[in-house]
From TrEMBL:
The lineage of its organism: Bacteria, Bacillati, Actinomycetota, Actinomycetes, Kitasatosporales. Signal peptide: none annotated. This is Oxidoreductase NAD-dependent dehydrogenase. The keyword Oxidoreductase applies. The keyword Oxidoreductase applies. Residues 7-170, 293-469 form the 3-hydroxyacyl-CoA dehydrogenase NAD binding domain. Residues 173-269, 473-566 form the 3-hydroxyacyl-CoA dehydrogenase C-terminal domain. Pathway: Lipid metabolism; butanoate metabolism. GO terms for biological process: fatty acid beta-oxidation. One of its GO terms (molecular function) is 3-hydroxybutyryl-CoA dehydrogenase activity. It comes from the Bacteria. Pfam families: 3HCDH, 3HCDH_N. Belongs to the 3-hydroxyacyl-CoA dehydrogenase family.
Length: 571
């Protein structure tokens, strides 16, 4: 007979424990909320005020759990502590009581053995920093010894709590922990290396990928000490260097800079702007005015950038390889502008003004008098270098030349000219009229005046510029693609479906799109090319394109644009 779990004990009332207690109480159940630290009960009680029809009994006495049908431990990420808590519960509770662990990095199987009742112990991996007040994914972790009826009952409970159970095996980090913690650790390392500022990293990932929060703010929400302990556990279990905690996390934990719960971590929550780490563009000299903009290229990115410039009121010239291509590119912009009017994002007057601001041409001479020229041709360094040589020869001495490359070295474009100090990267995101981020990429030779022009122009275009040095992947791709590639490697293990992986990250972490869905949207061929470029630069094994990506590209299954990829889009 299925268990309804009418009385649930939650031991440990931190972020995860409090979230579980609140969910259970809102469903009308009795909750025994236990924390042996009496000082933790008051803040826990404050978090558990809106519990609906259920009741919450706060206590410091572990013995009070004996009437529970389900005992959930949510104590710190240490094997000995978790096993001791559940071992005590084993002696205190009835034989039929089910146990659950909220571990992210430890083996549920080992905790199950330590609990004394391995067949009745499961893992419950929640995402308390994920979606609020709507259904969210909960990973339900079974072990080789977990009774099938126990798993079924726990999954039914999760559904009754208004959440979405995703059954996963007991592998390191499951799905959400494995993918998220490596990404967060990479971001902490990037910050520690001073490659980009705190605000730059978080802004890049929120505006560039649509994530609900940046990785450093996410670490603060989890708790820097909790993140460090989880990474430690994952590294001990796997030996994967991506889980080796960034030294900055250990240093901050030792200093008591634990994040949101302590009032200070990567951010100061008492004075949010007090320790803001300024982007390099913040103190740049006043930029000379940009009156005309040229865009070289006729593909999706080129037409998108040209539309952005025209809509901002800049006289804009788009140069394609032929008159036919130029006309097709202008038609693409026209269609996009018409759609914007239909959706209420653009007025008819703005449409007319934007149309009048944009002209097309087939010769680079047409951009000779522009103050800024943005190259947006095919992602091939030889083609780009040729374009930059021709622009250098034809444009005025004061013209700033920018490349929109997403992964190639900006310095290679700069050195094809006689004005490397006037060359900068301006990485727009697709679709350019919608996405607010522009990564402004400086080489070792880019002048501060050139950076000033790039930052000021991006701002005038209604974008948020974020500065970074010229390194493969810049900020977004350097953090995004290892995460995407790891998701494909996880799929390749054959124990989870693409739908399960995407569900965990969308309904768990609140990401706008699952990693496998996102790869299909980007294009698997484009993704493989970016990963190869990243691997050439960093030589990290995690950057070698996963086998399924290579195989799908070879078979012509490139994602949404071809109807098939990691998902089937032909249905």
């Amino acid at each position: 007979m299925a268990q309804r779990f009418s009385t649930i004990a939650v031991i440990g009332l931190g972020t995860t424990g409090s979230a579980l207690a609140r969910l259970a109480a809102r469903s009308g159940r009795r909750v025994i909320a236990v924390d042996t630290d009496a000082a933790a009960l008051e803040p826990a009680g404050a978090r558990l005020t809106d519990t609906g029809p259920g009741t919450v009994d706060l206590t410091t006495r572990s013995a009070d759990i004996m009437s529970a049908d389900l005992v959930i431990e949510a104590v710190p990420e240490r094997m000995k502590t978790k096993c001791e808590v559940l071992g005590h519960a084993h002696h205190a509770c009835a034989p039929g009581t089910v146990f659950a662990t909220t571990t992210t990095g430890l083996a549920v199987t080992d905790i199950a053995f330590g609990s004394g009742r391995p067949s009745r112990t499961v893992g419950l991996h929640l995402f308390p920093q994920g979606p609020v007040d709507r259904e969210a994914a909960v990973e339900v972790v079974g072990t080789p010894l977990t009774d099938g009826s126990v798993l079924a009952d726990v999954q039914a409970l999760i559904r009754d709590l208004g959440q979405v159970p995703v059954p996963v095996p007991d592998r390191a980090g499951f799905v959400g922990g494995a993918l998220t913690m490596a990404y967060l650790n990479d971001a902490a390392t990037m910050y520690e290396q001073r490659y980009a500022s705190r605000d730059g990293i978080d802004t890049a990932m929120t505006l560039g990928c649509g994530l609900p929060r940046g990785p450093l703010a996410h670490l603060d929400a989890i708790g820097v000490d909790v993140a460090r302990d989880t990474l430690d556990a994952l590294y001990e279990r796997t030996g994967d260097r991506r889980f080796l905690p960034a030294p900055v996390l250990t240093h901050m934990a030792a200093a008591g800079l634990l994040g949101l719960k302590a009032g200070r971590g990567f951010y100061d929550y008492g004075a949010p702007d007090a320790d803001s780490a300024a982007d390099p563009g913040d103190a740049l000299p006043t930029a000379r005015p940009v009156r005309r903009i040229g865009v070289v290229g006729s593909g999706t990115m080129a037409t998108g950038i040209a539309e952005v410039c025209a809509r901002a009121g800049y006289p804009t010239t788009l140069v394609a390889r032929s008159e036919v291509r130029a006309k097709e590119a202008l038609a693409a912009v026209e269609n996009s502008l018409n759609r914007a009017v239909q959706r209420g994002r653009l007025t008819p007057e703005q449409l007319t003004s934007s149309r009048e601001s944009l002209t097309g041409a087939s010769e680079l001479e047409a951009v000779a008098r522009c103050d800024l020229v943005v190259e947006a041709v095919v992602e091939d360094i030889d083609v780009k270098r040729t374009v930059f040589r021709e622009l250098d020869a034809g444009c005025g001495a004061q013209t700033v030349l920018a490349t929109s490359t997403s992964s190639l070295p900006v310095i290679e474009c700069a050195m094809a000219t006689g004005r490397p100090e006037a060359v900068v990267g301006m990485h727009f995101f697709n679709p350019a009229p919608v996405m607010k981020l522009v990564e402004v990429v400086r080489t070792a030779l880019t002048s501060r005046e050139t950076l000033g022009v790039a930052h000021a122009t991006a701002t005038a275009l209604g974008k948020r510029p974020v500065g970074c040095p010229d390194r493969s992947g810049f900020i977004v791709n350097a953090l995004l693609f290892p995460y995407l590639n790891s998701a494909v490697a996880l799929l390749d293990e054959g124990i989870l479906t693409a739908e399960d992986i995407d569900t965990v990250m969308t309904l768990g972490q609140g990401y706008p799109m699952g990693p496998l869905q996102l790869l299909d949207v980007i294009g698997l061929d484009v993704s493989v090319a970016i990963l190869r470029t990243l691997h050439t630069t960093f030589r990290e094994p995690c950057l070698l394109p996963s086998r399924p990506l290579e195989q799908l590209v070879a078979a012509g299954h490139l994602g949404r644009k071809r109807g098939k990829g990691l998902h089937n889009h032909e249905r």
